[in-house]
Design brief:
Elements (H helix, E strand, L loop, with lengths): L1 H4 L17 H5 L12 H14 L8 H18 L1 E6 L4 H6 L3 E3 L1 H10 L4 E5 L2 H10 L4 E3 L15 H10 L5 E4 L4 H4 L4 E3 L4 H7 L4 E5 L2 H8 L5 E4 L12 H10 L4 E4 L5 H4 L4 E2 L2 H11 L3 E5 L3 H9 L4 E3 L13 H10 L8 H15 L4
Parallel strand pairs: 1-2, 1-3, 3-4, 5-6, 5-7, 7-8, 9-10, 9-11, 11-12
Bound molecules: 1,3-dihydroxyacetonephosphate and iron/sulfur cluster.
Length: about 375
C-alpha cells in the first residue's frame, strides 16, 4: 500500500548541517529530531485523534501514523506554524494535523487571514504559491516541491501574453490552478466555487477563461457571457466517463452522483449536483444520501466517510498523484528543516496578488 511505503525509517535523521540548510532554515533555530517510537504514551495522547479517523484508518495502520501526528502537532506549536490542507489530502493529514481544511477558495481566504509565522501548505504547488502571494513576508513551505498539477503546467505567462495580442481588450480570467507567472498576467483569478460569479463580475460580453477547457464549458453553460477557452485539463477528472456513471446508476437507481466541474460535460450531465470540493462536501452533509459517488479525487470520500460513517461511498478511485506526494513524514521534515520554501520573484508576486486579491474580495 503506497502510504505505508512512504514511511521509511527516519527516526535517526541527523540535524541538517548549516551548509546544507535552506534559506528558511537559516532564519529559524534548529530543533531536535523528535522520537517516532510507538509507545503507550503516544497511543494515549493520540487516541482522541484516532477516534476521528477510525472509520477509514484500520487499527493496524495507526501505530505508523500516530508518532508523526504527535510530533507534527508539537512542532507546529514550537514553530508558530499552521497547516492549510486541501480536501484531497489523506485522512490522517486532513483530520489529525491540519489547522484549516477546504477547497481552493477557502484555503486562499484562510491564507489571507493567517497570523502565524509559517504556513505549511498540504496541497499542490499552485496552492502554496497562492498562500505566498497573499503573505509575501511569511515563510510558506510545501512538503514536496514536485506536487504539481496538470492544469497549472498546461499554460505559461508567455502564453497569456500571446492570447492578449490575439484578442486585444478581452479580459482574462485564470483558474487558481495556474502558476504565479500566469496569475501575474491576468485580470482576475477564480476557483471552481466562484467561476460563474467571477466571469459575470467583469461586465464584459466576452472573456478569456483559462486553462481548464471543461470548467470553461461548465461556466459557458451557466452564463450568457461568451467564453474563449484554453485546452488544459485535469488528469484526474478527465478520466471519469459518463458510461461508468450510467453503469453505477443502473445497478442502483437510488444512488446519488455528485461531480466536480473539472469533469467533461457528458460526465456532469449524469450528476445530481456539480460543485467545488467544498460544495460537494456540503451537499453530502445537507442531503445525507444513503449511497453516493463523489466524482472527484479519491481521498475526499475517505474524509467525508470519517465524518459521516453511515453513508456508503461508491469509489471509482482516481487519485491525484501530485496531492499524494504530501505525506506525514514529509510534513514533519518540512517543520524540522524548514523546507521546501516557496519563493516567488517579488515583481511577479506583486502583479499576481492583484488578481488573487480581486477574487478574494468578491463577496462570496
Ligand atoms: P477545489 O477548489 O474545488 O477544491 O478544486 C481544486 C482542485 O484542484 C480540484 O482538482
Ligand atoms: Fe490538478 Fe487535477 Fe490534481 Fe486538482 S486533481 S491538483 S486539478 S491534477
Amino acid at each position: 500500500m503506497p502510504i505505508l511505503q512512504a514511511f521509511a525509517p527516519s527516526a535517526d535523521r541527523p540535524p541538517m548541517p548549516a551548509a546544507d540548510a535552506s534559506p528558511a532554515a537559516r532564519r529559524y533555530r534548529v530543533v531536535p529530531v523528535p522520537s517516532l517510537e510507538w509507545t503507550p504514551q503516544v497511543e494515549r495522547e493520540t487516541a482522541p485523534l484516532y477516534q476521528r479517523v477510525k472509520a477509514v484508518v484500520p487499527p493496524v495502520e495507526w501505530p505508523f501514523f500516530a508518532p508523526y501526528v504527535k510530533a507534527i502537532n508539537a512542532l507546529k506549536r514550537e514553530r508558530n506554524a499552521v497547516i492549510l490542507a486541501h480536501n484531497y489530502q489523506t485522512p490522517e493529514i486532513y483530520n489529525c494535523v491540519a489547522d484549516f481544511v477546504g477547497d481552493s477558495l477557502q484555503l486562499a481566504r484562510e491564507a489571507a487571514k493567517v497570523d502565524a509565522d509559517i504556513i505549511v501548505q498540504c496541497g499542490v504547488h499552485f496552492m502554496a504559491e497562492t498562500s505566498k502571494i497573499l503573505n509575501p513576508d511569511k515563510t510558506v513551505l510545501i512538503p514536496d516541491l514536485k506536487a504539481g498539477c496538470s492544469l497549472a503546467s498546461s499554460i505559461s505567462g508567455e502564453d497569456v501574453r500571446l492570447l492578449r495580442q490575439k484578442f486585444p481588450g478581452v479580459p482574462v480570467i485564470a483558474y487558481v490552478n495556474t502558476s504565479a507567472d500566469v496569475k501575474a498576467e491576468v485580470d482576475i483569478c477564480c476557483t471552481s466555487s466562484n467561476a460563474v460569479e467571477v466571469v459575470e463580475s467583469l461586465g464584459a460580453d466576452t472573456v478569456i477563461f483559462l486553462p481548464d477547457q471543461y470548467l470553461a464549458k461548465y461556466v459557458a453553460a451557466h452564463t450568457t457571457v461568451k467564453i474563449i477557452s484554453w485546452n488544459g485539463a485535469c488528469e484526474v477528472h478527465e478520466r471519469f466517463t459518463a458510461e461508468e456513471l450510467r453503469r453505477y446508476r443502473e445497478g442502483d437507481p437510488s444512488l446519488s452522483i455528485i461531480a466536480h466541474p473539472e469533469c467533461p460535460p457528458d460526465v456532469l450531465d449524469e450528476a445530481d449536483y456539480t460543485g467545488s470540493t467544498a460544495g460537494m462536501i456540503d451537499w453530502v452533509r445537507k442531503h445525507h444520501p444513503r449511497r453516493v459517488v463523489m466524482v472527484t479525487e479519491c481521498s475526499m470520500a475517505d474524509n467525508v466517510q470519517a465524518e459521516l460513517p453511515d453513508i456508503e461511498f461508491v469509489r471509482p478511485c482516481n487519485l491525484c498523484p501530485h496531492m499524494k506526494r504530501i505525506t506525514l513524514p514529509k510534513i514533519l521534515d518540512s517543520l524540522i528543516y524548514l523546507k521546501e520554501e516557496v519563493v516567488i520573484d517579488p515583481a511577479i508576486a506583486e502583479k499576481a496578488r492583484r488578481s488573487v486579491e480581486r477574487m478574494v474580495s468578491l463577496k462570496r
